[in-house]
Each structure stands twice: as C-alpha cells, then as structure tokens.
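Comment thread on ticket #2218

A.B. wrote:
> Attaching the input chain for the structure job we discussed in standup.
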Amino acid sequence: MPLIEATLPALLLWALIGYLLGSIPFGLVLTRVMGLGNLREIGSGNIGTTNVLRTGSKAAAALTLLLDGGKGAAAVLLARALAGEDVAQLAGLAAFLGHCFPVWLKFQGGKGVATFLGLMLALAWPVGIACCLTWLAAAAITRISSMGALVSAFSAAIWAVLLGFSSMATLSALLAIVVFWRHSANIARLRTGTEPKIGQK
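C.D. wrote:
> Ran it. Output below, let me know if you need it in another format.
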C-alpha cells in the first residue's frame, strides 16, 4: 500500500465518491433505455456485461463493458489528480465495491470484473494490460469467461510485484478475494464441469 498522507475526511470523501461512481448500474440502465427488457429477469439476473450479452445486443454488452470499466478508471484518475495516490487506490477499491454491492439494488450488484480491469488500467497501465491479456489467454484456452476472470484476478498481485508496482499488491489481493467470492457459484460449476463455455446456449 502507498504511504497514507491524506486526512481522514479526505479519505472518507473519496471513498464515498468512488462508491457512488461504482454503484451506477450501467448494464441495467442501458438495457432499459435500449428497450431490451428488465436485466434482472434475463439469464442470471446479473447486471454485468456477460448477462447483458444474453439480451442479444452486442452493442449494449460492449457499452456496458466500457462504462463499467470506465467508472473504475474514473474514480482512480479523479482521486489521483485531486488528492493523491493513496486516495486513488481507496477510490478504486470503493468503486469496485460499489459495483458489486450497489445501495440502489439492495447491495446485489455485478461480479466486478470490468470495473476491476478498468481501475487496474488506471492505477498502473502495465499491470492493467497484463491482467487484460491474462483474462484473454485464460478465456481463449478454456473457452470459459469466468475462468478468465478468476485467473486474471489471481494474477493481479503477482503482476503488480513483477512489473514494479508493489505498492498496489495489497489492493490487488483484496480485489481478487472479492472477485473469487462473487464468482462462488461459477467456481462450484467449474468443479462439477457444468460451467457454460463461451458461445454455448
């Protein structure tokens, strides 16, 4: 973790800002605006990109991916510009938690993968790119989206240390724990061999 230099009020303020940014349920909003139905009643009911894709709209899914990743990046970049690196990491964590546990949806949000990748890219782009490529490689090899997410999250702290950004290793490990927690149902299906593969109906 970076040296904490910000005051407690500043930390609390940016934690709140990050959480509120992260809690915007773009997948839910986009599917309603685009007339694709109630996302909570489609597929898994999740608000993330994978479930938006189940509506049949690749455009909506792509926008959800970009916006969910963008809100994590925005929280980091705003906090870094206005308050410093210590606050940037906190804001990124708060945005991630906001996506996973949004107050507007009774704390039942997404699994956080896009937001995780967005904030990692903003915190340290080499680590973020490494995490994105890890996701792509794992998903391509296994043809399972959740496996890509799990391997990418697991590798984040390792990439942070190897690429010279050890100050964000602790945050990366915390994010990975939450990603694994949010994917508990996927992990159970992976163990039984029933997790759907990419493109499978």
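A.B. wrote:
> Thanks. Noting for the ticket: The first helix runs from residue 8 to 22.
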